[in-house]
Amino acid sequence: MLRSLVGSEMCIRDRLMPQDLEGMLAELAPRREALMKKEADRCLGLVDISNHQHFVTKLQSKMSDAKDQVIRKYRITEALLLRVNEPRKVNALAAKMQSLRRWEQAYNVNVNRVNEEVLWFQTSPAFHAAQAHVLENWQRTPSGALVNKQDLEADSQVTFEELLEQMKHDAEKSEGRSCPDPALSSANSSSAAGECSSLR
Prior knowledge:
By secondary structure, the chain is mostly helical. 70% of the residues lie in helices and 3% in strands. The chain contains 7 helices and 2 strands, in the order ααααββααα. It has helices at residues 19-40, 46-83, 87-122, 125-137, 149-156, 160-175, 182-189, and strands at residues 138-140, 146-148. It has a two-stranded antiparallel sheet. The protein is elongated and about 85 Å long.
């Protein structure tokens, strides 16, 4: 969840937010309506859930980046206020601080919007159904990648000889050769293949 700006973190940018972030925030309501309509029409798919999850995750990241940028802007303005004495500059910096405080309120409203969207989405029946489908049909490897369990099962049933034959075929295809590789052919037919039966 995103955290609101408080205390010395008051802010957003002078122009409120980056335009791309404003555009993504404006998409929240239409995207939710589209998801709800698809669910009502019984045509909501795993791709729809995945796309919205990606969208929300990207939006959270952009909100966090915007917060970091404007915290820096606030602190710079605050430090300049302590250093300048000229009334005109003091007034200009004070006006900027007021502007940042106004954008703080706008930012915090949007933080609440995004957090509410995440809560709604991740507690929805469609999200839980998609999550259950992924857990049932996919497995995470030690490297963190998701692999289809059916593919893993199919791969585990491939014999060593079939694997060599596939490697031979791939090599011929990539090199544009039409004749078989003698080395691979002999390896494929040798008695040593029998010693690898435990790999089947």
